[in-house]
Amino acid sequence: MTRLTSPPPRQDMMTQQPCIRIRGLKKSFGNRTILNGIDLDIPAGASTVIIGGSGNGKSLMLRCILGLIEPDEGIIEIDGEDILRASTTRRDALLRRIGMLFQNAALFDSMSVMENILFGLKAKRHSRTALPHRTELEQEAFHLLAQVGLGPNVAPLNPAELSGGMQKRVGLARALAGQPDILFFDEPTTGLDPIMSAVIDGLISDCVTQRGSTALTITHDMTSARRIGDHAAMLYGGKIIWQGPASDLINSGNPIVDQFTHGRREGPITTTMTDQPAIGG
Amino acid sequence: MRLFTLPFIFLGRYILKALHHAGALSLFALRGLAGAFRPPFYGRIILSCLLEIGFLSLPVVALTAIFSGAVIALQSYSGFSQYHAQNAIAGIVVLSITRELGPVLAGLMVAGRIGAAIAAQIGAMRVTDQIDALSTLATNPIKYLVTPRLLAGLLALPFLVLIADILGVSGGFIVAVGKLDFSPALFINTAYNALHAHDVLVGLLKAAVFGFLIALLGCYEGYNSRGGAEGVGRAATATVVAASILILAFDYLLTDLFFTA
User: Fold this and answer.
1) What pTM was estimated for this model as a whole?
2) Is some CB atom of chain B closer than 8 A to the CB atom of A120?
3) In the 8-state DSSP scheme, what is residue A6?
4) Among A6, A264, B111, B246, which residue's Cβ finds the most Cβ atoms within 10 Å?
5) Cα separation of A197 and A281, whole Å?
6) Does A67 touch chain B (CB under 8 A)?
7) What CATH architecture is A1-97+181-281?
8) Which tens digit of pLDDT belongs to each residue from A86-96?
9) Pick from A251, A252, A248: which is nearest to A229 by CA?
10) Contacts of B222 in chain A (CB under 8 A)
């Protein structure tokens, strides 16, 4: 099992070169505006956590960065290159640098665990002709499974035979297979018990401290947010309303952030059903 | 006044929606077909789809064809015997099977069996983020999921229909010879004289069109499904309904194009 490590030293968000820079990102569905001008810098080599209520567009923002949904307006830069205006080839090359762990792991259920990881290993190689021999790839897959704390005995299993935590670990192994330098985590601890949540959090922290990856995590889980985050931001009403060190989440001084992080019923955030957009997480 | 305009408003909306879907479906088909001409090529997936659509549909298509041929022989005998034209049965069986019933019935059977399965399979992948996962793993989901199914539909249906033609005529032959006391040689001779290569080839062309339509609609509905398990169910139902209607509509268009001069 990969050793759990404590989060790296806090770094000032403003002093680091942003790996991903988002400006004025907007996305509406019909007359419902979900993202209403997101401005956010995600520093390189650090772990950033986005918090926010359900339906506030956190997952939608990730999908816009990943190119899965086209935003209406805005700029999304990866290392200074605007992916929305780049050529398809260049955009694909930039997006190839990103690995993603989906909320439900999104493992291919028609494939075994081994095939899922082999898919990740093969898919992100630029040239299919330069693929190593299958035995070599399988060794690499076993190594990735070991990195996420899973033994070779899970390799022949189907995703349906795994627990939620194991599925997420396999999902992480598959995301790591392409050796991405940027990792996105969509609610990685949702639905997991506290111990498994700690394990997943540890793996995320390891990705940053040991691999030097840039991590962007969206979560509702405040314990997790404080455990893995160097930086944090809160998305509310389609905008980033607060950002700062993750250690300041509990005492942010912002009444909306305070209500959210302390889970209070009373406060500026209203939870009437009509406020809930259908798209976005 | 409003009561008068209301039906036109609904009709207009319906037409606009239908046109929007037709446009989206056409673009989807073009993207799917374009994938067949650019690497990477997923040969193993195409083979697996061919097996699923072609080989595994064989029993249901074969049974349908045999019984259809048998029923046509019986029905045409009871009708034609009134005019002492029983000898035309062989020609009726062979032409109706090769031109119409082979492709149409095979198409409808495959639409029920495969169209729904494709929609459910891709729909389930959509609602569980597996399609998005493909994109994040540098794999074009259209090329990976849609192109192989379109090609398999295009290739597998003609193969199925060729077999359905043979079995359908055999069904008619068995009934004509075994039940209606036809001479085997007379049946074969009459059928052979009535049949032209054009009949079989147009039947196979129809099959290719139907196979493409079934795969296209299954992929399109599945790819665009929303709303969890219920959405997947809706996609499967919509595929079977739309594919069945389009098979019948295209059958008319192709018949009009190739058999009326």
Assistant:
1) 0.86
2) yes
3) P
4) B111
5) 19
6) yes
7) 3-Layer(aba) Sandwich (3.40)
8) 888 888 888 88
9) A248
10) none
